[in-house]
Design goal:
The complex is a heterodimer of chains A (353) and B (287). Chain A has 353 residues and is α/β, with parallel strands linked by helices. Helices cover 41% and strands 17% of the residues of chain A. Chain A folds into two domains: 200 residues, Periplasmic binding protein-like II (D-Maltodextrin-Binding Protein, domain 2), CATH 3.40.190.10; 137 residues, 3-Layer(aba) Sandwich (D-Maltodextrin-Binding Protein, domain 2). Chain A starts with a helix and ends with a helix. Chain B folds into two domains: 41 residues; 229 residues, Orthogonal Bundle (MetI-like fold). Chain B is built from 13 helices and no strands. Classes of the chains: A alpha/beta (353), B mainly alpha (287).
């Protein structure tokens, strides 16, 4: 803004006030404008130690290499994604997605198809490939337990978890139907290869049996380990990354690799983002093999490339599940896609009964 | 006469003028979004145009019926506990000299000013298996009590929040009771208890009713406390709204549910405005 000299001299109080107000308001008007430019990309992740690992392994080197600034926002949420896309007011660009959100997001038209010309995923395991999302890592979920009580009698597999008489102790499961249904079937003795398509009735019968032994239906992931730490419960379904963090903090906690659920840490691009090009470039970076190795070293979640696993530090590799073990289950998000709403309702009704 | 009416109207307009900024703010940030919610409750994902589909779906849903019963159960229990705690407190405060009463008022208000989220987290520390209460119990050689992640936890958390709302209307009623009645009863030979049962308590009923209704209206919309301190059976209607909005992502359903919840609270508020002493709480005339 240029103001000529006489005008400045004649500046009335009102003018000073209006310019002052404009100057005060400027940042609020300018920031969204700048955010819409090509030099920035807004990323949404679940935070925690995985969030800082991603900052170090992916976002910081990405900015160094491309000059594109990465703004990290916490709390991915499918409802918010939907609100942004449907109101055509997209503020998020690259969002970390839960397994079940990927088919739902694709079906509802909330995600941009991954641009294969920009994102190179050759060699990525098929399980971590999707037309609308890139796989950034493979996570493992299983049973965590305290090592300072229970006298060494510990549930190591899901049938053990269901064997309440043989292995006493309080149980903790999640308050959502995804994962819990598969866990119930395995607890009832179904082999992981036969879990899908899920026998829903059998799963609910198995859940009926475990219900009295479950002290907590856990809402927040952080609670899956904190409730063991505070002696509120004994066995929970949690993730390797969480138990590793607890062990590093000196909490006496163990994790069983005997029977794990394996899923993908996805990232997707919101439909209609004005920064699509930059978002796709970041996806390409997330899919990069050497970035995934670095992320694996920091987070202990495995890379999505078979040949990359050997490059991971042995110390971090200790935390990675054996993907070839037939006792482990690959979570099938496609099976859930059309069923998740009805089963979620049924599960909530069942919880209240 | 006509002139006087005109003056009165002018006066009314002038007073209304002061309410304009607040009214505009409320319209923009409250009435408009609320209107959107109401409109959305009459839409459906499946078909465009006006439909009652969401209401039909909700009223026939087992989930809604169960959660409504839980909400009612929790509301009544929390209200009862708040009343049991608040009445003796209000009675005691009413007997104190004003200076002392002001001190006590501050003590009642401190939890009232604290965020319910912060209080709920504080309760997890106090009530947990290795919390303060259970540690104290274990020193006495008794088995631990489960006070958290169940109905007990919800009722403790909610009553704690609600007690001040129950104290105010009861205390205001007790303070407004004519002292002469107590003196008269005592001159006629009634003992302390008899005076309480026959004079003070019956006269305080409007205050109790107002407190009960106010606390019930507040209880209906509880969200944080059941989510943080409750167990699997402690889901309330507000949690169900969140469930439809965020987990199922069925916004027409979430909106219809909100409208039902709001309607219930509105009916309770109307009843509250009709009982003596109740309208004062809602901002109406003192009498």
């Amino acid at each position: 803004m240029t103001v000529c000299k006489d005008e400045t001299l004649r500046a009335s109080r009102r003018r000073v006030l209006t310019t002052g107000a404009a100057a005060l308001a400027a940042p609020f008007i300018l920031i969204p404008g700048r955010a819409r430019g090509a030099g920035k990309v807004v990323v949404v992740n679940f935070g925690g130690s995985m969030g800082s690992a991603k900052q170090q392994a992916i976002y910081t080197p990405f900015t160094r290499e491309t000059g594109i600034e990465v703004v990290v926002v916490p709390g991915p949420d499918l409802a918010k994604i939907r609100a942004q896309v449907q109101s055509r007011d997209v503020e998020w660009d690259v969002v970390d997605l839960l397994d079940a959100w990927v088919p739902a997001g694709a079906r509802l038209g909330l995600l941009e198809p991954i641009d294969e010309k920009i994102v190179d995923r050759s060699g990525c395991i098929p399980f971590a490939r999707h037309d609308f999302a890139v796989g950034g890592s493979i996570y493992a979920g299983g049973i965590a337990f305290p090592t300072d009580r229970l006298g060494g009698k510990v549930a190591m597999t899901w049938p053990d978890f269901w064997n309440v008489a043989g292995i006493p102790g309080r149980r903790g499961l999640r308050n959502r139907v995804t994962d819990t249904l598969e866990i119930a079937l395995m607890g009832d003795g179904v082999a992981p290869k036969d879990v899908y398509p899920c026998d829903v009735e059998r799963a609910f019968k198995a859940l009926d049996r475990i219900k009295p032994a479950v002290s907590h239906w856990i809402a927040q992931t952080a609670q899956t380990v904190s409730l063991i730490q505070s002696n509120e419960t004994d066995f929970t379904f949690t993730y390797t990354t969480r138990v590793k963090d607890m062990q590093r903090a000196g909490v006496p906690m163990g994790y069983s690799f005997k029977q794990n659920l394996l899923g993908v840490g996805w990232a997707g691009v919101l439909k209609g983002t004005p920064r699509k090009e930059a978002a796709m470039r970041l996806c390409a970076y997330i899919a990069k093999k050497d970035r995934q190795v670095e992320l694996a070293n920091l987070s202990v979640d495995a890379p999505c490339y078979v040949d990359a696993l050997a490059k991971v530090d042995p110390e971090a590799r200790k935390w990675m599940p054996d993907v070839g073990d037939p006792n482990n289950l690959f979570v099938n998000a496609e099976w859930w896609d059309t069923r998740v709403d009805d089963l979620t309702r049924r599960f909530k009704e069942w919880l209240l009964a | 006469m006509a002139r006087a009416g005109g003056l009165e109207r002018q006066q009314a307009l002038r007073i209304a003028f002061y309410a304009v900024p607040a009214a505009i703010l409320m319209l923009a940030v409250f009435a408009v979004p609320l209107g959107t919610v109401v409109i959305q409750s009459f839409t459906s994902e499946a078909s465009p145009g006006f439909t009652l589909a969401s209401y039909a779906k909700i009223l026939s849903a087992t989930l809604f019926v169960r959660v409504s019963w839980k909400t009612l159960e929790i509301t009544l229990l929390a209200t009862a506990f708040a009343l049991l705690l608040a009445y003796p407190l209000a009675y005691y405060m009413a007997q104190q000299p004003p200076r002392r009463r002001a001190m006590l008022m501050i003590l009642v208000l401190v939890p009232f000013w604290t965020s319910v989220l912060v209080k709920s987290f504080a309760f997890t520390v106090i009530l947990g298996q290795s919390g303060l209460v259970n540690t104290a119990i274990s020193w006495l050689g008794l088995p631990p009590v489960k006070l958290l992640f169940n109905r007990i936890g919800v009722i403790i958390g909610m009553s704690h929040f609600l007690v001040p709302f129950m104290v105010f209307p009861i205390l205001s009623n007790l303070l407004n009771q004519p002292r002469d009645l107590v003196s008269a009863a005592s001159i006629l030979g009634a003992g302390k208890w008899r005076i309480f049962w026959r004079v003070t308590l019956p006269l305080s009923m409007p205050g109790v009713m107002a407190g009960v209704l106010l606390v019930m209206i507040l209880s209906l919309g509880f969200y944080v406390v059941p989510a943080l301190l409750g167990g699997r059976q402690d889901m309330m209607l507000a949690n169900l709204v969140d469930f439809y909005a965020r987990e199922i992502i069925d916004w027409p359903m979430a909106s219809a549910l909100s409208v039902i919840l709001m309607g219930t609270a509105a009916i309770a508020a109307i009843i509250l405005s009709l009982i003596p002493g109740g309208s004062a709480i809602l901002g109406g005339d003192e009498r």
